Amino acid sequence: MIEIRLLSYFLAIAREQSITRAAESLHVSQPTLSKQMMELEEQLGKQLLIRGRKRVTLTEDGEYLRKSAQEIIALMEKTESSFQESARGVGGDIYLACGESAGMGFLAEVYHELLTDYPDIRLHIHSGDADTITERLDKGLADLGLFHGPIQNDKYDFIPLPIRDSFGLLMPEDCPLAEKEVIDRRELSRLPLIFPDQLFRSGRQLDWFGTHYPSFHIAATYNLVFNAAFLVEQGIGYALCFHRLAGNSTSRPLVFRPIVPELSAGLCLAAKKYQAFSPAVKLFLEYLRRKIQ
C-alpha cells in the first residue's frame, strides 16, 4: 500500500519539476527524496519521472498518478477536516461542485444566512461541466452538486431549486440583430452559433429547441462563457448562454438578448444517495430547505 506521505512527496516533485527544489520545500534531503521516489517506482512497477538535466517531467503513468494522488489527498483532507471540526463544535467544510449558473446567487444567499449563525463553516466551490460535477460527487470530492435539470440518475438525491436559468444570445452590440429586444427561437437555425459544449455533446433532441442538432450551424463550442465572449467579439458567431452569465461589462462591446418563447433550464442540488453528511453540510441543507419553503 502506498503511503500518503510518498504521494505528497511525489506531488511536490511534479509541482516543482525538480527533486532539489521539492526536497527544499519538504525539508528533506535530496538523496532521501530521490531514493524514496525510486522505491515508489519499484513498488508500482512503472517509471513515473523522467529525470532530465534541467528539470523533471512526468511520464504518462506519472501523470495518471498525479491526478489520482491529488484526489486521494483531497479526500483525506476533507475527511480529516470533518472529524476535527466536529470535535471542536459546529463548523467545518462544505464542498460544492457546480456549473456556471445564476443559481449560485441563490446558494450564496443560503450560505450567507448560514455563515451569519455559524461563522466557522467554510464553503469550497469547484466549477466545471456536468461531467466534472458527476465525477467529483462519485469520488467523494464534493458533498453537493449544482446541475441544470432534470437529471435522470438513480445514484443521486435531488432538491429542486425555485429558480431557472434562461437562455439567450450574446452578440456584438453593433450587429443588426442587437437592434431587436428579443430573438425568436426560429431564427437560431439561420445563425452561426457558439454552443455550450455540454449541450452539443449530448446529441439528443432538446425539448427547449424542439429540433435536432443538424438544424443548427455550430461554429464553435465552449464550457466557459467568458472565453466564448472573445469569439463573439470577433464575429465568429452568437453565443447561446444563460442570462446574467454573459458578463455584460462596459469594457466589452457585447449585448445579451433573450430568446422567445423562453428557453430555460431548471436547477437542482444533488447528492449521492445514502450519503453520510458532515454537520456543516447538514446545516447547509437545513437552511436551504427552509429558504425554499
Which helices and strands appear, and what pairs or packs with what?
Blueprint (H helix, E strand, L loop, with lengths): L3 H13 L2 H8 L3 H15 L4 E3 L4 E3 L1 H29 L3 E7 L4 H15 L3 E7 L2 H9 L5 E6 L6 E17 L10 E2 L7 E5 H6 L14 E6 L2 H9 L4 E5 L11 E7 L3 E9 L6 H14 L1
Helix pairs in contact: 1-2, 1-4, 5-9
How many DSSP helices? 9
User: Which whole number gives the mean pLDDT?
Assistant: 85
Biggest sheet character: 10 strands, mixed
Q: What portion of residues is helical? A: 40-55%
How many individual domains? 3
CATH class of the largest domain: Alpha Beta
Q: Beta-strand level of the residues, as a percent range?
A: 25-35%
- Going by CATH, the architecture of the largest domain would be 3-Layer(aba) Sandwich
Instruction: Look at the helices and sheets and give the structural class.
Output: alpha/beta
Radius of gyration: 23 Å
Say what the CATH topology of the largest domain is: D-Maltodextrin-Binding Protein, domain 2
Task: Explain how this protein is built.
By secondary structure, this protein is an alpha/beta fold. The protein has three domains: 4-71, Arc Repressor Mutant, subunit A; 91-163 and 267-292, Periplasmic binding protein-like II (D-Maltodextrin-Binding Protein, domain 2, 3-Layer(aba) Sandwich), CATH 3.40.190.10; 166-263, 3-Layer(aba) Sandwich (D-Maltodextrin-Binding Protein, domain 2), CATH 3.40.190.10. The protein is built from nine helices and twelve strands. It has helices at 4-16, 19-26, 30-44, 60-88, 103-117, 130-138, 197-202, 225-233, 279-292, and strands at residues 49-51, 56-58, 92-98, 121-127, 144-149, 156-172, 183-184, 192-196, 217-222, 238-242, 254-260, 264-272. Strand 8 (192-196), helix 7 (197-202) and strand 9 form a beta-alpha-beta unit. The longest helix is centred in the N-terminal third of the chain and has 29 residues, at 60-88. The protein is globular. The model has no long low-confidence stretch (mean pLDDT 85).
